Amino acid sequence: MRVAALIPLLLLAGCAARDETVTGYGALGRTYDLIEMDGGPPPAAATLEFPEPGRLAGDGPCNRFSGPVTVPYPWFGTGPLAVTRRGCPELAAEQAILAALAAMDLAEVAGPLLLLTASGSGRSLVFQAAD
C-alpha cells in the first residue's frame, strides 16, 4: 500500500526535474549564430547559446550577455540580462539586437534553426546552429 502511495510522488518529482524551456527541446548545449533579424540581415554579428537548462548566454559585437530563460517552450522569455560594459563602434547595433531578444515571446527549434518571434509585432530573430 505504501508503494502505491509513493508512485504519484515519484512521477511528480520526475516532471519537476524536466526542463520545459527551449533548452529542453533541442537547444541545450548548442551555439547559434544570428542570421536574420526582422526579415533582413542582422545589423551585426551575434551568437546565442544555451549552456545549461533554463539559461542563455551569447556574444554581441561588443559584449557578452547571459540570463535566465523564464517561460516554458514554445513560449520564450528572458529575465534580466547581465551584459558586460565594453564599448565599440557597433554598440548601437548590439543594443538593437538585445532589445529585439528581450521582445521575443515565442520559440521554435527546427533542426539547426532557432526561430524567435514577437507575437503581435511581426519582429523575429533567426539563428542557425554553429555546430
Descriptive account of the structure:
The protein has two helices and eight strands. It is α+β, with helices and mostly antiparallel strands and 131 residues long. Helices cover 22% and strands 31% of the residues. The radius of gyration is 17 Å and the shape is globular.
Low-confidence residue ranges: 3-17
Radius of gyration over C-alpha positions, nearest whole angstrom? 17 Å
The sequence of SSEs as H and E is HEEEEEHEEE
Shape: globular
Please render the helix and strand layout as text.
Layout: H1 2-17, E1 31-37, E2 47-49, E3 55-59, E4 64-68, E5 82-83, H2 91-103, E6 106-110, E7 113-118, E8 123-129
Antiparallel strand pairs: 1-2, 1-8, 2-3, 3-4, 4-5, 6-7, 7-8
What are the salient characteristics of this protein?
131 residues; alpha+beta
